[in-house]
Every structure is written in structure tokens, then in C-alpha cells.
């Protein structure tokens, strides 16, 4: 019998579609341990904001064998864009729910790259680095994001483009991203070398080494 959906089903669908506007769960359940919710979008940068010209901008992937693939800005723009809506969690304890981005999935950029590497060191214009296991950049978990809230990503927040890997603390989402170095062995980035956790899962509160 498929004549009518049971009332329970209709109610569930209403909840689900509300979720796409950004209130999927009550805020306690969206908030990892030790975090608080903010509506602002704070800017956290370890140094000055680099101004990167789109004409000169490149994004490169370099394998453990030294093979390089690079994309210019028009080449990035020509790739299919996704519009992830995600919660952000900064290690300084603020979380921001339902942020709306536009960017290219790393699945797309890494699809033709042949590698045995299990680790990635992400490099940014300005010299910032951060390490992420390669598998955390795949399967719809990470993007090269160039749009935020329907507009171009501003330089303060990492424009022209930043990494977005929202299931890890936000220091992993390198602003002004310029490339990914694939590595057979893990190597710490900027904050990881300064005592922050190698992996940085907010739900396991992996803030510092040893957490
Ligand atoms: N290149 C670069 N990326 C960076 C940083 C940085 O200093 N340089 N700071 C990180 C940290 S600690 C955080 S919390 C987020 C902050 O992103 P936002 O300024 O857009 O909020 O960017 C991350 N990415
Ligand atoms: Mo941070």
C-alpha cells in the first residue's frame, strides 16, 4: 500500500528540510566538547594577510615522486563547484554553525593523481603549513573553497581560495592555499610543530599533543 505516507514520515521530512537551512540538530548536539557557539566569523591569522593576484594564483599537487599537477584560476573556475554547508570548530573554542561555501571538491582535484602517499602537507601563500591524512581530504570531506555566503571569499578569510576541511579543527583549513604535498610519512605543519594535535578531531577534543 503506497497511497499515502504515514503521518510520521511527513513529520520526519519536515524536520529534514528544516535541517538544510542550518538547524539540523539542537545546538548542544552540534557543539563539540569545550566549544561555544558564535554568530560572528572571527579572523585568525598567524601573520599578515597575503594578497594573491588571481592571474598569478596556482594550486599544485605534488606527489611523493615529485610529479606536479597545477591549476590556474580559470582552470579551477571551470571545474564543477559544490556548495557545502558546514559547522566550523576553532581550537580557540568558538564554533560557527551552518556556514555556506562554494568550492571544488578535492576528490575532483586528486582524481587523476597517482600516489601511494597516506599523508598530505598543505602549503599556503605566506608560508603557513598544516598536515592532514590524505584520506581526510577525500570522500566529500574537503574542498578548495573560493566562495563564502554567496560572495567571493575575502582575503581575511583566505581568498582567493582556502582549504576547507570542516570535520577537523579550523587550523587545518589553510587559508590562501597554494598546494598539497603528498608524503609517505607524516610531517607536522606550523601549529602541529608548536604543540597542537597532529590530527585535531574536535569531537575527541584533540587540541594539543597528547590529547
Ligand atoms: N594560511 C593560514 N591559514 C590559516 C591560518 C593562518 O594563520 N594562516 N590560521 C588557521 C586558524 S588557527 C584558524 S582558526 C582558521 C581561521 O579562519 P578564519 O580566519 O577564516 O576564521 O584559519 C586557519 N588557517
Ligand atoms: Mo584556530
Automatic annotation (TrEMBL):
Pfam families linked to this entry: Oxidored_molyb
Record domain Oxidoreductase molybdopterin-binding: where: 47-191
Record's protein name: Oxidoreductase molybdopterin binding
Region (Disordered): 23-44
Species this protein is from: Catenulispora acidiphila (strain DSM 44928 / JCM 14897 / NBRC 102108 / NRRL B-24433 / ID139908)
Stored CDD domains: arch_bact_SO_family_Moco (cd02109)
PANTHER family on file: OXIDOREDUCTASE MOLYBDOPTERIN-BINDING DOMAIN-CONTAINING PROTEIN (PTHR43032:SF4), PROTEIN-METHIONINE-SULFOXIDE REDUCTASE (PTHR43032)
Domain of life assignment: Bacteria
Amino acid at each position: 500500500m503506497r497511497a499515502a505516507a504515514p503521518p510520521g514520515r511527513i513529520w520526519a521530512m519536515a524536520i529534514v528540510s528544516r535541517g538544510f537551512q542550518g538547524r539540523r540538530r539542537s545546538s548542544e548536539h552540534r557543539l563539540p566538547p569545550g566549544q561555544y557557539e558564535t554568530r560572528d566569523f572571527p579572523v585568525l591569522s598567524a601573520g599578515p594577510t597575503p594578497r594573491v593576484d588571481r592571474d598569478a594564483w596556482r594550486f599544485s599537487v605534488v606527489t611523493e615522486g615529485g610529479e606536479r599537477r597545477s591549476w590556474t584560476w580559470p582552470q579551477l573556475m571551470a571545474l564543477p563547484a559544490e556548495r557545502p554547508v558546514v559547522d566550523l570548530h576553532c581550537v580557540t573554542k568558538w564554533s560557527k554553525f551552518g556556514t555556506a561555501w562554494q568550492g571544488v571538491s578535492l576528490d575532483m582535484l586528486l582524481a587523476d593523481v597517482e600516489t601511494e602517499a597516506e599523508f598530505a602537507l598543505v602549503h599556503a601563500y605566506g608560508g603557513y603549513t598544516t598536515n592532514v591524512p590524505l584520506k581526510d581530504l577525500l570522500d566529500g570531506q574537503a574542498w578548495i573553497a573560493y566562495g563564502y555566503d554567496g560572495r567571493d571569499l575575502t582575503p581575511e578569510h583566505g581568498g582567493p581560495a582556502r582549504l576547507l576541511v570542516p570535520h577537523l579543527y579550523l587550523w587545518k583549513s589553510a587559508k590562501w592555499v597554494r598546494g598539497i604535498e603528498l608524503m609517505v610519512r607524516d610531517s607536522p605543519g606550523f601549529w602541529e610543530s608548536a604543540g597542537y594535535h597532529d590530527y585535531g578531531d574536535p569531537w575527541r577534543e584533540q587540541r594539543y599533543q597528547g590529547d
